[in-house]
Design goal:
alpha+beta
């Protein structure tokens, strides 16, 4: 009988991840998730601020349209509603026959940073 030679093989590497690789992957994933959560909070805050600014612009636009629908002379005034206060002032442009006024509407509203003021201007021609 012939003897077989026994060849010793090197031990095979096991399939899978080491604990260091798993910890590194968890850390990278955690940083990514925290970044997404921070971005979502910032976007939500910005949307809230944009909503109140949009409301303020709508109030100013409504004031301009109301003044356009009135007869001259335009008067200055103020109003408050829905947490937004406004003051408007009109100054005549050109001669009195043109019936054109420059109107400045200053709107104040409160946001997270405090009281904010936004000014809007338009030229209004009064009805004959």
């Amino acid at each position: 009988m012939k003897r077989r030679k026994v060849v010793k093989r090197a031990p095979r590497a096991r399939a899978g991840f080491t604990i260091v690789e798993v910890i590194a992957a968890i850390m990278i994933l955690t940083v990514g998730v925290l970044g997404l959560a921070s971005a979502a909070a910032t976007v939500t805050r910005m949307m809230g601020a944009a909503e109140i600014q949009s409301d303020a612009a709508a109030i100013a636009a409504a004031r301009f349209e109301t003044l356009r629908a009135t007869r001259c002379p335009l008067a200055s005034g103020s109003a408050t509603g829905a947490g937004i206060s406004e003051r408007w002032a009109a100054s005549q442009l050109g001669n009195a026959g043109m019936r054109m006024y420059q109107v400045t509407d200053t709107v104040q509203f409160r946001n997270r940073r405090g009281l904010r003021t936004q000014a809007y201007q338009s030229v209004v021609q009064c009805l004959p």
